[in-house]
């Protein structure tokens, strides 16, 4: 191996924290140089990432509604592995990662990567400051280091490199649909077109939210205007220094409240070796 690559989509920084810890652990364990590829913003997705058999790629994304962010799939399907080793990681907001890790593993295999291991870790939920608050914490990062060291041992032994189905202990099947929020009567809640609002009295027009938006959807000259899609990643809300961003949609707020009621516990990480 010639290099370790930390590759991530991380609107609120939790995925970056986990991927970076895993990559740094591998860097030290294998005495390799470390490179970083951040594809959180549109500029980071301008060109496909191409790797080869001498590369070790730690790649991570957050899970939204139990799957990978669907607008990121076109970019992920341009990755080129060419025999590179990969450690796929996902972050989930204290509920469940459902098929997010499986989906990432299948994409990587299809793009020519060989998998070393895999992991799903808890990070603060994109909708909440309560669910998974402060995570990943030191206990989570200890799990990350354990996973990375196990991956390093597999590299040193040159395999075997399992398929994602074998890692997860499942028989091949179709991916499950995205998680659907529901109201108290069991009816689906559609928040796909919901966008955050701007409190003009709190906004200082610093423009930080423009650079944080992973879809490039916030108009730089009119911060209240969101021209493109909002993926509800929480970047503009959690990254605003004055708390000027917020949601007011009743369906969104109901779903947020229900999540905080149902999943207010310490969810566990999952490590697959």
Task: Tell me how many strands there are.
Answer: 9
Structural class by helix and strand composition: alpha/beta
Shape: globular
Percent in strands? 15-25%
CATH topology of the largest domain: Rossmann fold
CATH class of the largest domain equals Alpha Beta
Note the topology:
Elements: E1 3-8, H1 14-30, E2 34-38, E3 55-62, H2 73-76, E4 85-92, H3 100-110, E5 114-115, E6 118-122, H4 138-156, H5 164-168, E7 197-198, H6 208-212, H7 235-238, E8 245-246, H8 250-262, E9 270-272
Parallel strand pairs: 1-2, 1-3, 3-4, 4-5, 4-6
Antiparallel strand pairs: 6-9, 7-8
Helix pairs in contact: 1-4
Short description:
The strands form two sheets. Strands 1, 2, 3, 4, 5, 6 and 9 form a seven-stranded mixed sheet that branches. A two-stranded antiparallel sheet has the order 7-8. Helix 1 crosses helix 4. It has helices spanning 14-30, 73-76, 100-110, 138-156, 164-168, 208-212, 235-238, 250-262; strands at residues 3-8, 34-38, 55-62, 85-92, 114-115, 118-122, 197-198, 245-246, 270-272.
Describe the structure.
With 273 residues, the chain is of the alpha/beta class. The protein folds into two domains: 174 residues, Rossmann fold (3-Layer(aba) Sandwich); 52 residues, Alpha-Beta Plaits. Strands 1, 2, 3, 4, 5, 6 and 9 form a seven-stranded mixed β-sheet that branches. The protein has a two-stranded antiparallel sheet with strand order 7-8. The longest helix has 19 residues. It is globular, with a radius of gyration of 19 Å.
Defining key terms:
single chain, 273 residues, alpha/beta, Alpha-Beta Plaits, 2 domains, two-stranded antiparallel sheet, 8 helices, 9 strands
